[in-house]
Design goal:
alpha+beta; two-stranded antiparallel ribbon; 16 strands; about 15% helix
């Protein structure tokens, strides 16, 4: 149990480092966005899904290789991302991660310890300073983020280099928009229905890919991906993957309570918890 939790924690921290009312019946997305300028049509379709909300809450199943764990997730707009992991069968909480604009708190309830990581020492991309939570929200909700600015608007189409490869049958494939910087690149892939299907961030030899599927309409005109798959590869080509499956997502007021350590918890250093987590990847 302890090893499974720390493995999940490591993957989630890496993901954050690189950038981190009831549900209606799911609706099928119909119609395709092709034509003379499919890139712009698809980009604008993704941008139009940038609705405002207070909090997104959902049950979630985490997939770690052949292992699955249940938990909960809460994304509070502009404030924090909270992810809880429950013990198999028994169902009580064994750990959580809370990411805010300033830090990431990793809580191991199994060993009664926690660590606080300052985001200022983690980010490889200076262009997202001041937009950390906005970048993380875009990743979670299948949106496009423009470094140095924030969530994309229609005016940002020209900030990306676009292409739509032709498939073997002559049909148009995914439209790909690339944001290129001297030190990193971000590639967004949008399907023919105007849904973001993946975000790929490359910083030197390190990459992080966030893939999306099974969009549903949580409220009128408010679409959410309910299947997400994150793959992080480090400079040594070591790979860690985490899958997220959201069920019963809702938009509304947050009910998540802050983590407040009791006297039985020990605050450990970033170095100590980092060593513990990294040792599991060897």
């Amino acid at each position: 149990m302890n090893k499974i939790f720390k493995y999940f924690s490591f993957a989630a921290i890496l993901t954050v480092t690189f950038v981190l009312s009831s549900c209606h019946t799911p609706k099928v997305v119909t119609g395709t966005l092709t034509g003379a300028n499919p890139e712009k049509a698809r980009f604008e379709h993704v941008v139009q899904n940038g609705y405002k909300y207070e909090a997104l809450q959902s049950k979630v199943k985490y997939s770690l290789g052949k292992t699955s764990l249940n938990g909960k997730m809460c994304l509070e707009s502009g404030h924090r991302l909270c992810m809880q992991v429950n013990a198999p069968l028994i169902g009580f909480e064994v750990g959580r991660i809370e990411a805010t604009q300033d830090s990431v708190i990793v809580v191991d309830k199994y060993d009664k310890m926690y660590a606080i990581l300052g985001l200022g020492n983690l980010y490889d991309i200076k262009d997202i300073n001041g937009h950390e939570m906005e970048a993380l929200e875009c990743l979670m909700l299948g949106r496009i983020f423009i470094p140095g600015k924030g969530q994309a608007t229609n005016k940002d189409f020209g900030k990306l280099s676009w292409s739509t490869p032709q498939l073997a049958d002559g049909q148009q494939g995914y439209s790909e928009g690339v944001y290129q910087s001297k030190d990193y690149s971000i590639l967004y892939a949008i399907d023919e229905n105007g849904r973001l299907v993946s975000t790929l961030l490359a910083v030197g030899a390190k990459t992080a890919r966030w893939e999306y599927a099974d969009y549903i309409e949580a409220e009128d005109g408010k679409w959410l991906p309910t299947q997400e798959y994150i793959t992080v590869t480090n400079a040594e080509n070591k790979e860690i993957s985490v899958g997220l499956k959201l069920t019963n997502p809702s938009l509304g007021e947050s009910t998540w309570r802050d983590f407040e350590p009791s006297d039985s918890f020990s605050k450990v250093s970033v170095k100590e918890i980092g060593t513990r987590i990294k040792s599991l990847t060897k």
